Amino acid sequence: MKKYSTLLLLVIAMKIVSAQTNLEMANEAFAAKEYTTALDLFQKILKKPEKKADLADINFKVAECYRYNGKLNDAVTYYNQAKAAGYSNPVYLFHQGNIYLKQGKYEDAQKKFESFLEAQPNDKDATRLLNNCKFANSTALDPWFYTFKNEKDLNTEYNDYAATQLKFLLVFTSSRIEDKTEKIYSYDGQGFSDIYQTAYFKEDKTWSKAKRLEGLSMEKNVGVLTYCEKTKTVFYTRCNDGKTKDNFCRIYEASYDEATNSFGIPKAISLSVNQKADMEQPAVSADGNKLYFASRMEGGQGGSDIWVMSKSGDSWSEPVNAGSVVNTEFDEAFPVVKDSALLFSSEGFTGYGGLDLFSSVNTSGNWSKPQNLKTPFNSSADDFFLLLNADGKSGYFSSNRKDGVGGDDIYSFFLTPVNLVVKGRVTDVDNSSTLAGAKVVLTTADGTTDTTTTNGNGEYSFDLAADKDYKINVLNPGYFGDSKKLTTQGEKFSKEFSKANGNNYDFSIKRIPKTEIKIDNIYYDLDSFVLREESKPSLDKLAKILEDTPDAFVQINSHTDERGKLEYNTKLSENRAKSVVDYLVSKGINPAHLTAKGFGFSSPVIKGAKTEEEHQQNRRTAFQVIQN
């Protein structure tokens, strides 16, 4: 019995030693940032925990492992379990807030940051991220003028990012694992990054199978390539090559033969001062004279900064910090140069969460205040490395936003074509019959015209350009013309201007009668031929009719009542008709197409009028088309 008890105690002791050893190994892996290894060990311990006192710390570290591996929902769960087990450091609130921010759950994130700031007042990081939540909640989503596509044929469950053009190829960086013999990066469980190439087949609308870019690939981390077509030189990042004492990431350059898709021997860009920091994510200017990159080297603003070197002969100058306008005390990374603009990602400027894309323009050596590219380029996740194609309307960017294939993904985008068209129908106003063969003229503000005729159904259509002002005229022999104005200013999406879509550009035009047409509401003072103000709206309508019927020759007729002397009334009516002609000329009507005639009381509507109402009907102004 005693022997059995001794054996039992020995087994228990061995189990305790074993559990302690596993915990020590897990903590060592965690401290070494080998989060995949640490996670496996911590999970085994949690299945059979020996000490409740360790649970809070273990659950917190499991949450951290998930966070670093990008499994954010699992991280939130274990932060909560750490809290339930008694974890007291409020940093878990900060991490949960940051996760919610990256997931676009801005209200949840705001609550977590506010709770953290109650425990840690005036914390700079939490205050910055809290401002991001408020910015995202207060900023209206911009219309999506671009069409986006996750390039699923290129993306894998691993990180795929930094797509750029290399002549006719698309090259990008990936940490994919293609076979089980490949080494795994213990930090996040992904493969070591490498540069891949692919090509797009327009006819099939497919990408060729991505393969490693021969000549630059290595066993260790390689990635983020930029190409200068003028100098036929590529620049890229190479890390941990085992050949340098400091073992930091360095930027390498190599010549490129476009005809054979081959490279010269890569060489590291050397500095006179030994910088104890990674130099990565190069971006070369179009002329090949400036090289931008990201680094945490000494002398920066803090965190990762954008730096720049200038070409001098065959060598590069010492790096110069891009300055406090572009850089913050937080991280700026993934620079891309397009003409005078610098596109880059930052977590230091106010944004939507994670890394956001910004642009800054260099004028006379000075950078403009960085502008957030907003949605949809930016999201609550990390958005980075935006490449514009030569057309300036399409390109690629990288993001780990939700609903992707996995990890960082490559997205393509293009400016969505805006197709604008106007459609209408021309009919007779009196009987609603369609008018085939009617002439329709589209005129822009600069005087450019386009002409068509209505089809058998009286229909017409025109294609329109964006941000233009138009006038549409309808002309048909024997009819008064008509016109309508149309503008496409500010139209960012395809649109049909038609009656069916709430924009009526149908026309109902009137046949020109042979008799005169009374102009309503024409008033003069007693014994005066000066037009009163209330007469002008009716004459403005007449001016438009005549402007829309430019071939018409019109006679303005003025009539008086039968009271008074013939000579006086004739002269008064002539002057009144002339005053109408003068007004129409002031409105731009061709004076050669206008005549004035006074009839006095020679053509009454009611002969021998007796009442004031009958006299008023005889006092009238009319117009008559005498030639069309």
- CATH-assigned fold name of the largest domain: Tachylectin-2, Chain A
Characterize the main sheet: 5 strands, antiparallel
CATH domain class of the largest domain:
Mainly Beta
The chain-level structural class is alpha+beta
Shape: elongated
Notes on the protein architecture:
Helix content is 24%, strand content 31%. It is α+β, with helices and mostly antiparallel strands. It folds into four domains: 2-138, Tetratricopeptide repeat domain (Serine Threonine Protein Phosphatase 5, Tetratricopeptide repeat); 146-415, Tachylectin-2, Chain A, CATH 2.115.10.20; 420-509, Immunoglobulin-like, CATH 2.60.40.1120; 517-627, OmpA-like domain (60s Ribosomal Protein L30, Chain: A, 2-Layer Sandwich). A hairpin with a 4-residue loop joins strand 29 and strand 30. Residues 1-19 have low confidence and may be disordered.
Short synopsis of the structure:
The chain has 628 residues and is an alpha+beta fold. It contains 10 helices and 39 strands.
Write the layout of secondary structure elements.
Blueprint: H1 2-31, H2 35-47, H3 55-68, H4 72-84, H5 91-102, H6 106-119, H7 124-138, E1 146-150, E2 160-166, E3 169-174, E4 184-185, E5 190-191, E6 194-198, E7 200-201, E8 206-207, E9 211-212, E10 222-228, E11 233-238, E12 250-257, E13 262-263, E14 267-268, E15 279-284, E16 290-295, E17 305-312, E18 315-316, E19 320-321, E20 332-338, E21 341-346, E22 356-363, E23 366-367, E24 371-372, E25 383-388, E26 394-399, E27 409-415, E28 420-428, E29 439-444, E30 449-453, E31 459-464, E32 469-475, E33 482-487, E34 495-497, E35 507-509, E36 517-518, H8 536-548, E37 553-559, H9 566-586, E38 594-598, H10 612-618, E39 620-627
Parallel strand pairs: 28-34, 28-35, 37-38
Antiparallel strand pairs: 1-27, 2-3, 3-6, 4-5, 6-9, 7-8, 10-11, 11-12, 12-13, 12-14, 15-16, 16-17, 17-18, 17-19, 20-21, 21-22, 22-23, 22-24, 25-26, 26-27, 28-31, 29-30, 29-32, 32-33, 36-39, 37-39
Helix pairs in contact: 1-2, 2-3, 3-4, 4-5, 5-6, 5-7, 6-7
